[in-house]
Write a structure and sequence with these properties.
This protein is α/β, with parallel strands linked by helices and 703 residues long. The chain contains 24 helices and 21 strands. A ten-stranded mixed sheet has the order 2-1-3-4-7-8-12-11-10-9, with helices on both faces. A three-stranded parallel sheet has the order 19-20-21. It has a two-stranded antiparallel ribbon with strand order 5-6. The longest helix has 17 residues. The C terminus is likely disordered.
Length: 703
């Protein structure tokens, strides 16, 4: 990746840098006065409790802006029933920055079955009800009501995944781009340090928010396509026509400059290259909102085109008409360099909740306070996941020295540190420093995943630098144990046996979480996940190295119920696999169609959007009904007596009554115990596992 963006720490600092960094960003007028401020330049409004830690998005954005010399205040979890609470810090000089928090507010408030959650991990004492539905919209409206003429910039995971017309699971309809619903002036997507810093400096120099066009990683309105730009219709790229099987479904051009021999049955689309300068001045017109909201096939088409424009090296701008408004989506921001990442994490975070909360417990903080994020992004491309759409698929790495400094800071400053680092990771545990072998190939690649259907031959999978990092971190004085708790990409891990041995020998606390997600090829092919062969290979290595280390350790596999492409028989086969291998799930995760993901386009359209979609494309299984979703979850908890009546009925309907009985070969017994509902004790070969969706991934920053 060739970086031509200015270093985010290379700007001339704003005049207010003379005040120096605040012990914690102020949440009240009294704290502002203690800092000597008469006003804030920027006020950040968030749906989370304010924790001054680099795993909390608003803390990162706030500290980055403070380092630029701006006075930044925080309004955390305001009372949204009126505009009064949005005036608590006065009127900001430059803009309001609004986010729903580290989690999407709808995912935070509702389960996959659309039931209200009883707690909120990002709130003091886990209290529920401290943020509204669609928090970004509500907060932005109240900011506008509080100070009519102050610019509003929205961002974070909630805004990021709603930047174009998107299917909304909770209302079961396609909604407009959130920039319209929120009535914001500008939307930033991704982690957004690069965009936010440029926006702040340009506004501080007197520019108008309406004139801030063309900043990568932003969404704004235009009256018309600017002069000098070539408009390209999205159907020229991905015409919803005849069904053709493609290995790389978003590949408008060959994925790599070097052309390896084609695998059997592999096809490559030939193309006429667009000159780089011409490409940079090309905008792709997506179907209008009024069309995609009523046409699932056009929605699937728009989703496919959008996902094809996510590589910062070759992505083009997108435009989508909403009524009489034109929404312009600029290409993704260039990833932060390692020095920039180090700069972000070296800022003077207190690493604690704001003193306003006293001794209250903030569950999300308790989980991540002694963990260290070492990278961002993910090139896995799992269709149900939103990391790529938000953080990008180019891995952004911290340096080894920066990571070590943070571990030492935790050791030396955390009031309740006992010597254990809970995690060294990020969106994945083992993608640190992994990238394409050739930056030029990386910049031109249009594949949605570097590891599906197999690991790309251009991907560097050497994890020995991570082994070196682990060894250096373990040697630090005062460090007793370092755990790896982030999601492990086991299909990559097995490419470096030394890494697996190091991990298993020193960094597993009895259990290691991995995510096969399913055992059957049907759903796995829609998830873009590897088959169970990779799992079996990893398990063999895990068991071998655990035995050599003299440790009794267990793998905890995660599975998803009711994913697009999953039939009842797939869940039955998964349940049989679980029983055969002695696994008993405690709590399970059902597929939740998050805005903008590939799997959500499948859910809404009923088609396999990993391939060209036409109106006569075959339908795929979409478990939508409450009964079927409950059945799929019940298969994962086949051992729970509460689920036995539903499973017996289903097995009879499926012609598998042979699995009902009281022997070891049966899935569910023929009798129904008269108990208090507690599961009957069953013999297992390995430890039970949990797949409860909490919305918290240690060290994953999703602002």
């Amino acid at each position: 990746m060739i970086h031509n963006a200015p270093n985010i720490f290379g700007y001339k600092k704003n005049w207010a840098h003379r005040f120096g960094p605040a012990p914690e960003l102020p949440m009240s007028l009294a704290e502002m006065q203690q800092q000597g401020w008469d006003a804030c330049d920027i006020i950040l409004v968030t749906g989370d409790a304010y924790v001054d830690h680099p795993s909390f998005g608003m803390a990162v954005i706030g500290r980055v802006l403070e380092a630029q010399g701006f006075r930044v205040g925080i309004i955390s979890q305001p009372d949204w029933h009126s505009a009064e609470d949005f005036r608590r810090l006065g009127q900001p000089k430059l803009f309001f920055g609004v986010t729903g928090g580290n989690m999407d507010s709808m995912v935070n408030r509702y389960t996959s079955d659309k039931k209200i959650r009883s707690n909120d991990a990002y709130t003091a004492d886990g209290a529920a009800g401290k943020r509204p539905d669609r928090a970004v919209n509500v907060y932005a409206h109240r900011c506008r009501e509080a100070y009519k003429n102050v610019p509003i910039v929205i961002g974070g995971i909630e805004a990021s995944l709603r930047r174009i017309a998107h299917y909304d699971y909770w209302s079961d309809k396609v909604r407009k781009s959130i920039i319209l619903d929120s009535k914001a002036d500008l939307l930033v997507y991704g982690n957004a340090e690069r965009q936010v810093v440029e926006i702040a400096h340009r506004l501080s120099k007197g520019e108008n928010i309406a004139d801030l066009k063309g900043i990568r990683g932003t969404v704004h309105f235009v009256k018309q396509v600017p002069l000098g730009w070539m408009e390209k219709d999205s159907t020229d790229i991905d015409k919803p026509g005849a069904v053709i099987s493609h290995v790389n479904p978003y590949q408008e051009q060959p994925a790599c400059e070097d052309k390896p021999a084609l695998a059997e049955n592999e096809q490559v689309i030939q193309f006429k290259p667009i000159a780089n300068k011409q490409r940079m001045q090309t905008v792709i017109r997506l179907p209008d909102y009024e069309l995609v909201k009523d046409d699932p096939i056009l929605y699937a088409h728009a989703s496919r085109v959008m996902h094809g424009e996510t590589n910062p090296g070759n992505a083009r701008a997108l435009i989508q008409r909403h009524g009489n408004r034109e929404v312009w989506i600029n290409p993704p921001p260039l990833p932060l360099t390692t020095p920039e990442m180090d700069g972000v994490f070296d800022l003077p975070y207190s690493r604690l909740p704001h003193t306003h909360y006293g001794k209250a417990n903030i569950p999300a903080f308790e989980m991540i306070q002694h963990s260290v994020l070492i990278m961002r992004g993910c090139f896995g491309g799992c269709s149900f996941c939103s990391i790529t759409e938000h953080e990008g698929r180019i891995i952004q790495n911290r340096s080894e020295d920066s990571i070590i400094r943070e571990i030492e800071a935790i050791r030396d400053t955390s009031p309740n540190f006992t010597g254990n680092i809970s995690d060294l990771g990020g969106p994945t545990a083992n993608m640190w420093r992994l990238a394409c072998k050739d930056p030029a190939i990386e910049a031109s690649c249009r594949k949605p995943s570097c590891v599906y259907p197999g690991i790309c031959h251009n991907l560097n999978t050497d994890q020995t630098p991570l082994v070196k990092l682990y060894r250096r971190a373990r040697k630090l004085p005062g460090i007793k144990k370092i755990f790896i708790a982030s999601g492990l990409r086991y299909d990559i891990a097995v490419e470096t046996p030394e890494y697996v041995k190091e991990l298993v020998t020193h960094h597993v606390g009895g259990y290691l979480k991995i995510a096969p997600e399913h055992t059957e090829q049907g759903p796995l092919s829609k998830m873009m996940k590897p088959g169970m062969g990779s799992y079996d290979r990893f398990k063999q290595m895990f068991d071998k190295y655990s035995k050599e280390a003299g440790k009794e350790q267990y793998l905890i596999p995660y599975f998803i119920a009711a994913h697009p492409g999953t039939e009842d028989k797939d869940m039955l086969n998964l349940a049989l696999w679980l029983k055969r291998n002695g696994f008993r799930a405690d709590q399970v995760q059902a597929f939740l169609p998050s805005p903008m993901s590939i799997a959500t386009a499948m859910y809404h359209s009923g088609k396999d959007t990993l391939n060209k979609v036409a109106r006569n494309s075959p339908d795929i299984a979409i478990p939508k009904s409450i009964k079927q979703r409950r059945l799929h979850k019940a298969f994962l908890r086949y051992h729970d007596p509460k689920n036995w009546p539903l499973l017996r009925e289903a097995l009879k309907d499926m012609g598998r009554a042979d699995l009902i009985g009281n022997g070891k070969q049966h899935l569910v017994p023929s009798f129904q115990p008269k108990t208090d509902g507690q599961p009957i004790k069953m013999q297992t070969k390995t430890m039970p596992f949990k797949t409860k969706y909490t919305g918290i991934n240690k060290n994953r920053s999703t602002r």
